[in-house]
Fold this sequence. Notes:
Layout: H1 3-7, H2 10-27, H3 29-34, H4 36-63, H5 69-100, H6 116-126, H7 131-137, H8 145-149, H9 152-167, H10 171-195, H11 198-220, H12 222-247, H13 251-257, H14 259-268, H15 275-284, H16 289-302, H17 305-321, H18 328-341, H19 351-360, H20 372-375, H21 378-403, H22 409-417, H23 419-422
Amino acid sequence: MGVFKLLRVLYVQVLIGIVLGVVVGAFWPTLGVDLKPLGDAFVSLIKMAIAPVIFCTIAGGIAKMSDLKAVGRLGAKTLLYFEVVSTLALGLGLLVGEVIKPGAGLNKDPSTIDPSVAAGYLEKAKHSGGLVEYLLDLIPKTFFAPFAEGALLQVLLIAVITGFAITRMGSAGEKAAKALDDISQVFFSVIAIVVKLAPIGAFGAMAYTIGKFGLATLFKLGALVATFYATSALFVVVVLGAIAALAGFSIFKFLAYIREELLIVLGTSSSESALPQMIGKMQALGAGKTTAGLVIPTGYSFNLDGTNIYMTLATLFLAQATNTHLTLMQELTILGVAMLTSKGASGVTGAGFITLAATLAVVPDIPIASLALLVGIDRFMSECRALTNLVGNGVATLVIARWEGDLDREVLKAELDKGPISAAG
């Protein structure tokens, strides 16, 4: 492939944008910070189309299903898979934190840490509410409110109800289902146009990250950052790799296939920036439309593998950094609490930090002020969280589709065998 032809490939353009962003942020930090709107604008443009895509995909898919019991079965299997894999991610973070001990030797005296830095995150965590409030929040105030607010689970609920309603409408329902299909194609076309701006968005977001927080901050707590990235890579290759192998595909071919989405997420630090594209990619790999449309958006609240690893690993890091000894029972408590607090965290940058604050709030032995130690590097950690979350939800879609008999394995093999360049499309 010639140089000019290679430069026309989106993932190459995004990679160049990321590299240029790092350079600008490192050498001209003030300019880098000023470029933040470029990244914010790109993510906002993508997010404006997420809710309509999910609604049309799910409602239209259910409307065409002859076996409505299959929807409930699909939902149950999805939640079961999410719970098992999320627990594995939480457990791995706890295990690695105990073995590697990235916080050992820092010897931070809690009394010397400014508590006001962590206070804001703790306040947000307190306002997250309990289980009943969380469930009530799934019910939108109006039909259109979730679309305006970008509340994905509420959109999902409306889509499921709408899909069931359409199945009761006979011939009129068939026309409605066809209309939803056509509308979804419009929004996928909108996304295809917006995604072309990804290199600019990645450039602005990365320039801001490096310019605002600096590479020096990253090096100061390099042990934790390196441990987290290595643990996430281990989870993807070993845990998700084993799950993928059992489902009949290679995790490495899968990663190559979604490389554009991975680079977009790396540049923007938000897995939501690639959500619509991932739904389309999973359908292209042979997953059924309804399965892809249901599993991926649901996974953004219930299957955040990267966030789960971060929560348990970071909790142990803070305990070690402040010389706080935790008993086995306390570590198991952290695991149990994290299983609850991790649910509902979205792919938006910073959500993982808020859920970490909620977890620490129930383990009073660890000084809550110690969260200040992570503020400077959280943006760097957020990128890895988002990447791992994206891969985890993609693998989940294909695995659950096969489990449900809704995966065309011949299409999956053919698409993955095309390799990185051929799959660029």
